[in-house]
Design goal:
The chain contains 5 helices and 6 strands. With 167 residues, the protein is of the alpha/beta class.
């Protein structure tokens, strides 16, 4: 698996799927999820909510509306909107997103810093958890993962985790 790091707007990524840090209810009310919903249109949230409840540690795939991405992988990091996110929930969400990508045969996905925005997870620990799950994923899909964020601090933590986490 190739892993790339980019300072970019995830709503502009032309990939097979983008990962939305979600809640179990499928409500796309804040952070990255809200940005994806705003830019991609209301059909995304309607479809996500129709698939709820989505357990933390599970993921569902919806259409991506008018986004450049083809699909959205909704990977809950919290049960209800506004809850604080633990590193274990970040780990479980990342694993679920990778498994969903694998099951659907998605080659290229984009993932933001899970749980590091509104969820309040420690960015350094969250980055390590995400990279550990990437390194542990041995399936042929996805073949390329873009770790994407617009926050320089989150990107620095992801870069550090990539450099210090053993393959």
């Amino acid at each position: 698996m190739q892993i790339h790091l980019a300072k970019s707007d995830i709503t502009e990524m032309a990939v097979d799927a983008v990962v939305a840090p979600a809640n179990s209810l499928g409500i796309m009310g804040g952070g990255v999820a809200a940005a994806l919903s705003r830019k991609g249109g209301p059909t995304i949230q309607r479809e996500a909510m129709s698939l709820a409840p989505i357990a933390v540690g599970a993921a569902v795939v919806t259409n991506a509306g008018t986004l450049w991405a083809k699909n959205i992988i909704h990977a809950p990091t919290m049960e209800e909107p506004g809850l604080k996110v633990s590193v274990e929930c970040v780990r479980r969400a990342m694993r679920a997103a990778l498994l969903a990508a694998s099951q659907r045969g998605f080659d290229v996905i984009a993932v933001p810093g899970l749980g590091t925005g509104l969820g309040g997870a420690d960015p350094s620990e969250a980055a390590r958890a995400m990279v550990n799950e990437l390194r542990a994923h041995k399936q042929p899909h996805p073949s390329t993962v873009w770790l994407v964020d617009q926050n320089d601090q989150i990107l620095a933590h992801l870069e550090e985790a990539l450099q210090t986490t053993t393959p």
